[in-house]
Batch of 4 targets.
Target 1
Amino acid sequence: MTIDTTASSVSGINIKSSQNRLLIKNGRVVNDDGMEDADVYIEDGVIKQVGRNLIIPGGTRTIDATGKLVMPGGIDPHTHFELEMMGAKSVDDFYKGTRAAVAGGTTTVIDFVLPNKGQSLIEAYNNWRQKADGKVCCDYALHVGVTWWSPSVRNEMEMLTNDQYGVNSFKMFMAYKDAWMLNDYELQCALEACTELQALAQVHAENGNIIARNCEKLLAAGVTGPEGHPRSRDEEVEAEAVNRACVIANQANSPLYIVHIMSKSAIQALQNARTRQRPPLYGETLAATVGTDGSHYRNACFRHAAAHVLSPPLRADPSTPQAIVEALADDSLQVIGSDNCTFHEKDKELGKGNFTKIPNGVNGVEDRMAILWQKAVNTGVMDPCRFVAVTSANAAKIFNLWPQKGRVEAGSDADVVVWDPRLQRTISAATHHQAVDFNIFEGQEVVGSPQYVIVNGRVCLDDGQLRVAEGFGKFLKTPVNCPYVYGLPEPGTPPLDEPPSPDVPSPAHVSNGGSHSPDLKLLNKHLEGVSVTSSGCSTPTGRKMREPGQRDLQNSTFSISKEVEGLDTKTSVRVRNPPGGKSSGLW
Ligand code: URQ
Ligand code: ZN
Ligand code: ZN
């Protein structure tokens, strides 16, 4: 392990021993199901106590979090560090990428092993572990791409779900024809395999055949610049694939997680599917689509326009970012990731004269939390609890890391962010910690950022100073059969391969229409400082929070004022409410 010498000169061993006990005092602890004024005591990388008047051993380092929010470290479930694609390699490696993640308040990332067509999945997995293990500054897990199909792929999927490898999610591509794309038959086989293995299927939902044909036509018509990219893959092309993926998932009786949803049409397709089918459907969106839009593809500067090329693309409809934020707030979407996949200008130039050759991907791993805070919490669309849900807790639940990750509670890993809601900064490639030479959020002012970031008990952002340690993070095994996805089987549960009955909607994915309507006056009070003495979201008295999952994310009538007045009647209801709704295992 090596320590970032730009920020610290002490050895890794000393840092660990001097920081094995930590007290975060006077802050407001925010979880997805409640807020409370409480101190957090950390020892040996684990949260030991959360409460007031704690009895703490002498010599413990204390961080004063007065006026700050103490939240679970972010989980970014979608990164591509050191990914070779389209003739280039993404420049944020596992060191710089996770260092940037920590700087922005993210303490766990989940990267994608993407095998080449014909390559062994196990071999690709081993390559990824080799790239990552010695470099990561925070914990990480891996999804594996199913980029081709054969009986051997099915076997390797099964092996990967064993404890030796610890993979519980697989990504299938409906785009990137002639590279990673599966046809519908192969996709259905892969989804059936996920159901059998009780792993979580993910899809990149765009119609790759339509895109290929549109690219041919655009190039033939002389459209060669980056503006051709969004023109080749409009909203309909995304929404059609979302719908088709949901239909295939229903046929395969498979829960489904749709990565990087980028348009209002795609959200609508997902919502429509939720009303008619039983296995749960999860939607992830990206910081990119919350923080910027498709107008950049019209920029005359190739470098600028190409730097925004990702798939699905940013949308021209200027109301998209706001709609995406609202979808995250009302649980139409459950997770925000970054899809951090960054390429230097020289690599983006591979597509000069032919937009189809521009390596796809943008930054976001560092700015994801601040961008969402700015666009969603500062605007009053989302309360801090929902912010925690979509930036960490839901991902922890969906990928079976809960409550080890995504929660500030005794027994959880000490991955904690002390968030200063007043900290003001301007995002810029000149000051960011990523390797890439461009930032798609350049010049945006955000209010709200981490002041301290604690990774497994180690203070890695210390009052704004980044002090990460290369190799300090560890690989997280994610077990299959996640209770938040597959539910707990009940007596008499039909076998999972029994075809679903289309006319029995499951509570797992009834369209929610739930509102998160924070009382803005009280929310502002939270942000002014810790001036409301009882808890904000859900724990009006006492420090014991609800059991994980007890907050109803789907049908919430959450109101800060009601909760403060002690009118919350849900605290005694013990139901399992995973992200996206209840899962009974009966679908
Ligand atoms: O499709 C993805 O998720 C990666 C491989 C590339 N980045 C992107 O453009 N979304
Ligand atoms: Zn993708
Ligand atoms: Zn991606």
Target 2
Amino acid sequence: MTARPRRSALYMPASNAKAIAKARTLPCDVVILDLEDAVAPEMKDAARAQALAALGEGGFGDREVVVRANALSTPWGADDLAALGGTGADAVLAPKIDGAGDIAACVTALGGTTPLWVMIETARSVLRLEEIASAPGVAGFVMGTNDLAKEIGMRPGGDRLPFLGFIANAVAAAHAYGLVALDGVYNAIDDADGLARECAQAVTFGFDGKTLIHPSQIDACNRAFSPGADEIAWAKAVKAAFDDPANRDKGAIRLDGRMVERLHLEQALRVLTMAPPD
Ligand code: COA
Ligand code: MG
């Protein structure tokens, strides 16, 4: 996938017209129109129709629009995927994926070339991360921490200790195959401190961004995933050092008392891509 900011990905029930309208004005990088867990069974058909209408109407500006379908094992999954292929959605997010067989079925049902993002939320999925990441058609991983806790029987506390092994492996699998990696949601809508802590933790794990459930969570998330002033200054200094003709033939150089190598130059260039324009 192209390098572009995917710091904040806001879910909303596709049955909620007001939320979809509001999303066109919110500072999130990705809008996820949900047909799955956030939509009651009686509203599934109406939600699908509303998601398709929203995609047709557009108006989301630079935001990517992703639609989360129902699983193929449900009464709605096949209709969702058949309807979503070729609609201009930037990706379709597939829930309850256990392995490459489920991916192949989704890709076939979707048809065409719409990238597939995958929820990492079943107990089996975390045992098959590389198989899923390398399956043809997959372009992103999204942690589904609520479902994962339920399936495995975890009781994660504020530090998310029981998740950490799965999270580290999921980010590694995603980035090994060039996929987007987004963290799960923070359920406590009114707990700004807790959200800030969890965003900071997600940054340390190497996620590209975090999925969110409420507009009030966007600003803190964008801040956490944007390079800070110190990081931007470091990146500029590393770039300048390697741009210096005196260092043209060097692989490692001393900069402000620390070693930097060409791998740091790659990191620095990525930081500068994500930094706001001067
Ligand atoms: N996306 C866009 N707009 C949203 C929103 C969202 N996820 N959540 C709330 N809003 C809007 C509301 O429509 C409301 O707009 P208004 O001021 O124009 O009336 C405003 O933000 C304030 O909403 P609020 O009253 O605080 O929210 P709520 O108590 O009505 O709803 C939730 C709380 C959790 C039900 C709601 O935020 C939600 O549906 N979140 C997404 C759930 C989801 O998609 N889950 C699936 C993935 S885990
Ligand atoms: Mg889920």
Target 3
Amino acid sequence: MSRTPLIAGNWKMHTTIDEAVTLAEAVAEASQGLSDRQVMIAPPFTALSAVAKAVAASPVLIAGQNVCWEEKGAFTGEVAPSMLKDAGCTMAIIGHSERRHIFGESDAMINKRVLGAQGAGLIPILCIGETLAEREAEKTFTVLEEQTRKGLAEVTITDPAKLVIAYEPVWAIGTGKTASKEQAQEVHAFLRKIITDLYEKNIASQIRILYGGSVNSDNVDALMAQQDVDGALVGGAALKPEAFIRIIRFQ
Ligand code: PGA
């Protein structure tokens, strides 16, 4: 089984262009020579192109924090897949809980974004996650299954490296409250079962499932030691060079 771990930094709505370049340079330097893991950063749209230039000589990958399903037209406020590629991106975060819960993005819209990204050759990182109320009502698995199936409707996969799933419990995002390693593993194994149902076994077994939600330099090693945790999607700690570099160097 070959699932190359992926450590992804989601910078959200932070950093000026200059701040982004400085942070990206630190990440690029720390990523030199790493061959057993991948590192990705998702700066705000305004800094993408400057960051892409800053990390060009390094293995660091760049992602958009969202992507439209259309290539051009009257879609004020949206960014097309080809625009992300033009700015240096190879990946796009889609369906982040902040998009779902603050901006009201539906599973149907998120599915269109996944299909659009994939069609343009970008690797989608499909985010899913239950709220605290859903977990307390014991609806975690139902919610996650629905988000996964709807988000991946009509999505075909021939190369498992070309799709990433990120499990981010909403109650763990930005709260300092991380899922325990057992909770993360339980959900990741469940998600792997769902994708095995959707795709061929040898494809599903190779799709990477990241964990996100208050990942930091203290908990990353335990999370990454779980069998089905193939990487981390990091928010707050991705803005602190020292912490993110330690996370990249998980053991
Ligand atoms: P956090 O954010 O690490 O600050 O909890 C994770 C995310 O939203 O991707």
Target 4
Amino acid sequence: MNISPDTKVYGIIGYPLTHSLSPIMHNMAFKEKRINGVYLYFPCKYVEGVVAGMKSLSIRGLSVTIPHKEKICHYVDELDSLAKEIGAANTLINKEGFVIGYNTDAYGAISALKKKVNTIKGKNVLIIGAGGAARAIAFALKKEGAKLTISNRTIEKGLKLADNVDSKFCPLSHISENGYDIIVQTTSVGMYPDTDKSPVSKNIFKKGMIVMDIIYNPVETNFLKTAKKCGCITISGIEMFIYQGAKQFELWTGKDAPIDLMKKTVLNIIGR
Ligand code: NAP
């Protein structure tokens, strides 16, 4: 790509930013769609000056990752209604000096689930974890009409999320198979390099259940491998990652995202 004065600048903020796959995924998408854009790493410890910096440097869009998704909401000019409800934004758009925050994690998770589930309405869904990603997914699933149970290691955090989305709560140490149709694993347990770990035992799985892990490295976690052995239908975190990125691409460029290419690019890097 030739850098010119017209090249549109995008990027990702977070700290640390060592393992993000977003730059390679978005740069490949720009190339494929012939967009004069570049997506860069912006390791950033303090979030206070980010929105002002975006405006003064004409940065068109940013992905926001750990630990800034919540704090950034205090600095944008406007928050999309879902991001406001969740209390976290993972995407910023600079529309001629007016910066809007969105949450595409929620969209990513629902799109990934809908590849394997016809309707989410009325389904019993267990969400393992109560961190930032769990929060986005819980609000999105509630909107889809799911009956939710939240389970978390730290009880106060789990109870708070369960209260916010008007759902049941079960401590992580007490969960067992309980008529769930869908399980969504959102903790970081089992993520590279601790790939032999799982947050739960195989007793929670039942044949035919839909089981999604939002961890995308490795592509198939220990949790998903066990679910598959128990006869569950599994969904990798790669699916959510691609869909949340595709939605960002569409918000920034107004064009359809090259989803297959984005997925192929990410899978090549992770080594599958
Ligand atoms: P977070 O806000 O830090 O939340 C972490 C969650 O993991 C909390 O519920 C925490 O429980 C739980 N946890 C951590 N260590 C644990 C342990 N040893 N045992 C039991 N529970 C443990 O992080 P996040 O932003 O939600 O991200 C969570 C994971 O999702 C990460 O692996 C991230 O890469 C992945 N993610 C994937 C996508 C995607 O597109 N596929 C998008 C966003 C995030 P406590 O409350 O007890 O600490």
